[in-house]
Amino acid sequence: MDRYKLDILSSGKNYKKICMAITAGFFTNAAKKHPQEGYLTLVDQNPVYIHPSSAIFNKNPEWVIYHELVLTTKEYMRNIMVIDAKWLIELAPSFYTKADPNKMTKAKRMEKIEPLFDRFNPKDSWRLSRRKG
Q1: CA angle 80, 115, 41 (to 5 degrees)
Q2: pLDDT of residue 37
Q3: Exposed (0-12), middle (13-18) or buried (19+): which is 31, by Cβ within 10 Å?
Q4: Is residue 43 part of a domain?
Q5: Hey, which end of the chain has fewer CB within 10 Å, N or C?
Q6: Kind of pairing, strands 75-82 and 47-50?
Q7: Confidence class for position 115, pLDDT limits 50, 70, 90
């Protein structure tokens, strides 16, 4: 703060400001709850899970920000914080945009979903395949 000559202001008991500041810094590390199991990262759609040592392990929030991923038997998120999805659009508008469900691009409609082998998930779990030119 001193280097850039910014004022140091307290957020008081407004924890939302602190959470939004962390979200602004780690917006690429966002994940959304998958309907069946675990979470999917927003950037590359990788399946990830909340680490068992986390305080929100059995809470299953809809949206989270994580600090790091750890690969053991599954890929786990560590240092997790619950966020509001609207924060991503507000804090990183050049990275996230709100989509209109009625206006899908032709490329989006042409994407096919097919099962891919993954030894960590059940045989019939689904995820997006690579795009074919």
Answers
A1: 20
A2: 87
A3: buried
A4: yes
A5: C
A6: parallel
A7: very low
CA–CA distances in Å: residue 123 to residues 36, 94, 114, 115, 120: 13, 37, 12, 8, 9
Structure tokens at 95: 């990275």
Q: What is the pTM of this model?
A: 0.68
Residue 26 lies in a domain: yes
Predicted confidence band at 111 (pLDDT cuts at 50, 70, 90)?
low
Q: Taking all residues of the chain, what is their mean pLDDT, rounded to a whole number?
A: 82
Find the helix or strand (DSSP H, E) in which 53 lies: none
Instruction: State the residue range of the domain holding 82.
Output: 15-98
Alpha helices in the chain (DSSP H): 15-25, 85-91, 106-110
- pLDDT of 25-83, one tens digit each? 999 999 999 988 899 999 888 999 999 999 999 898 999 999 999 999 999 999 999 99
Domain membership flag for residue 51: yes
In a domain, 110, yes or no: no
Which residues are CB-neighbours of 2 under 8 A, at least 6 positions away?
Answer: none
How many domains does the structure of the chain reveal? 1
User: Rounded distance, CA 83 to CA 66, Å?
Assistant: 10
